[in-house]
C-alpha cells in the first residue's frame, strides 16, 4: 500500500491523483469515472486536528492520497505562530502524520520546489528523498544547491535523510 501526502498548496499531485482515479475506476476500467471529492485535506489534519485517516482517499487499489489545496497556504504562518523554533515546527508535522506511518508500506511526501517550512518538515520526516528536476542548466544548478542544503539540514537537525536518486 502506497500513500502520497501532498504538502504543496497548489495541490497538483492531488489533482493528478484524482485524474488517475477517474481514468481507472469507471465500470469498464477506463475513461471517465467519478472524481474524488476531497472533503478533508492536509490542512484539516495539521491545523484543525482531524485524525489523518479521515483525510486519506483511495485513488486506485493500493494507492492513496492525503490531498492539499490552497487552504494549506496558511500553514506557514500558523505553525510559526504556534512554535518559535524550527525543530518544534518539524516535530509537530511528524507527530500529526505518524498515525499513518504503520498503515502504508511506502509514503511519498510531495513538496513545493523551494526550501520552505513545507519542504523542511518533509526532510525531517522522510528517510529518503527523490529530487525531480527539469533538464535545463538552471534546474541542474538548483538541484545541486538543494542537495547541498539537504546535507546541511541532515547535520543541523540530526536526521536520517538519504538521497534515493535524482530524476530528470
UniProtKB/TrEMBL annotation:
It comes from the Bacteria. Transmembrane segments: none annotated. Signal peptide: none annotated. Residues 1-161 form the AAA domain. PANTHER family: COBYRINIC ACID AC-DIAMIDE SYNTHASE, P-LOOP CONTAINING NUCLEOSIDE TRIPHOSPHATE HYDROLASE. This is Cobyrinic acid a,c-diamide synthase. It comes from Enterococcus faecium.
Amino acid at each position: 500500500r502506497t500513500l502520497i501526502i501532498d504538502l504543496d498548496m497548489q495541490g497538483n499531485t492531488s489533482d493528478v491523483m484524482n485524474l488517475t482515479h477517474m481514468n481507472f475506476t469507471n465500470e469498464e476500467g477506463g475513461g471517465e469515472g467519478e472524481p474524488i471529492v476531497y472533503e478533508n485535506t492536509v490542512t484539516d489534519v495539521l491545523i484543525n486536528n482531524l485524525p489523518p485517516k479521515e483525510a486519506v482517499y483511495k485513488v486506485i487499489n493500493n494507492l492513496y492520497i492525503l490531498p492539499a489545496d490552497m487552504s494549506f497556504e496558511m500553514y506557514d504562518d500558523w505553525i510559526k505562530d504556534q512554535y518559535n523554533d524550527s525543530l518544534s515546527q518539524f516535530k509537530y508535522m511528524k507527530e500529526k502524520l505518524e498515525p499513518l506511518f504503520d498503515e502504508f508500506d511506502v509514503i511519498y511526501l510531495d513538496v513545493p520546489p523551494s526550501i520552505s517550512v513545507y519542504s523542511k518538515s518533509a526532510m525531517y520526516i522522510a528517510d529518503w528523498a527523490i529530487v525531480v528536476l527539469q533538464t535545463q542548466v538552471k534546474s541542474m544548478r538548483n538541484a545541486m544547491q538543494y542537495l547541498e542544503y539537504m546535507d546541511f539540514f541532515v547535520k543541523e537537525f540530526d536526521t536520517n535523510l538519504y538521497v534515493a536518486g535524482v530524476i530528470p
